[in-house]
Specification:
Layout (H helix, E strand, L loop, with lengths): L5 H11 L10 H8 L6 H8 L14 H7 L20 H15 L2 E5 H8 L3 H13 L5 E4 L4 E4 L18 E3 L7 H25 L12
Helix pairs in contact: 1-2, 4-7, 6-7
Keywords: Signalosome
InterPro entries: PCI_dom, PSMD12/CSN4, WH-like_DNA-bd_sf, WH_DNA-bd_sf
Family: Belongs to the CSN4 family.
Length: about 220
């Protein structure tokens, strides 16, 4: 539930590589967080049931954030656009920030409206959350207020794995437009290795394969 960013990623990395964690009921969501995969409502609901009351504490939206979120108020008249102006609980905020960071690993850019659809927020509230994370150094990117687009920077080469978020519409999938071939190849190897590790863990949990001391990555 810590703020999404480099510090949390390092902690998740340490936990993910501890083989004992695979025995936890929350291993699936932990692996998705580590691999920067988009978290879905059903997964969040299941994880929520394992938390303690103080971990589900309500949080208030500041007046400044509320005003900033109202910048795109005219778009909220569309029934397909969420009317939420911010997260309501500590878990809610952590999941929204995680999904925002995860989307930066997948796309070059995303519109305020597209990000709002992903986070279940108004477009203005989604932009406000992205702006705060950029200002705090937890998200690399810039915001185009005129075209209402958030541009992500350096998202495809910095992390171990990626997830896919489908059906958002207002997004542009990232393309490798100049990274050295070797870096792109290394990234693919790291991604494949991480995904294979997850699959092996699932097979071990189901008793379909037997883990041995000689198993290596």
């Amino acid at each position: 539930l810590a703020p999404a960013g480099p510090n949390r990623s390092r902690v998740l990395g340490s936990l993910y590589r501890d083989e004992r964690v695979a025995e936890l009921s929350t291993y699936n969501i932990l692996s998705k967080m580590f691999l920067d995969h988009i978290l879905r409502p059903a997964e969040i609901k299941s994880f929520e049931e394992t938390l303690k009351p103080h971990q589900l504490a309500k949080i208030a939206i500041s007046s400044n954030d509320r005003l900033a979120s109202a910048a795109n108020e005219e778009e909220t008249s569309d029934s397909s656009v969420s009317t939420r102006t911010g997260p309501s609980t500590v878990l809610d905020r952590a999941v929204m920030e995680h999904n925002l960071l995860a989307s930066s690993k997948i796309y070059n850019n995303i519109t305020f409206r597209g990000l709002g659809a992903l986070l279940d927020l108004t477009p203005g509230a989604a932009e406000t959350m992205a702006r705060k994370m950029i200002e705090q150094g937890r998200l690399r990117g810039s915001i185009d207020q005129v075209d209402k687009i958030i541009w992500f920077e350096g998202s495809r080469e910095d992390d171990d794995a990626q997830g896919k978020a489908g059906g958002l519409g207002d997004v542009e999938e990232a393309e490798d437009t100049g990274a050295p071939f070797t870096k792109h190849w290394d990234m693919q190897i790291r991604t494949t290795a991480a995904n294979v590790e997850v699959m092996v863990q699932h097979l071990v949990e189901r008793g379909l394969v037997k883990a041995t001391a000689t198993m290596s990555h």
